[in-house]
Hints:
By secondary structure, the protein is an alpha/beta fold. It is 44% helix and 21% strand.
Amino acid sequence: MSTKPRVLVVEDEPTIAEAIAARLVAEGFDVEQVHDGLVALDRAAAWDPEVVVLDVMLPGLDGHEVCRRLQAERPVPVLMLTARDDETDLLVGLGIGADDYMTKPFSMRELVARIRALLRRVERAAAAGAGGGAGTVPPTVDVNGLRIDGAQRRVWSRDDEVHLTPTEFDLLACLAARPGTVLTREALLAEVWGWADASGTRTVDSHVKSLRRKLGADLLRTVHGVGYALEVGR
Ligand code: CA
């Protein structure tokens, strides 16, 4: 059996799909391409990919509905391809649960780096879930009316459980480990997403926005030009 990571590429523009697939194969991934949203759901169920690269504008079923249905089945990391920055903001606002976003046109080098980072995070979360590796499990934190259970990866606001995507949880746990401390976007990218460069700081902003929507606008303080902090006394 192949040990290459399985990546499902869902993109209806053949030249883009082919270019992505060719690069990923060259980088050692096992790749399948589909060009339609409904077919994507069938392939994901049958093939069990480890990462899905998903275009937003698709025939059959659009990328945002595909993402929602994929995540309802099981949590698979989704890297979403959007046509414009404001489209990314719109999708984040809808809370569809993509783990990362890239706006076209993007560099293949960066796409590969982000897929590798997603896979590393899945491995880390799996190790934490299996109880392996001290230090991989975020601590359980009670702060500001929130209870964040690092071992179970569950969050309660007052007495209500709030469903977060894996990425939202990791970002919240990272900020909640140091309440009141301002963390730069670059530091958050490195710690939560596992990227060494700062090319994706908008991804941090997008996920902060969705945490605020789910947990209250005043939970996370923006320090303009610097980063974010979890408020201690709101
Ligand atoms: Ca498209």
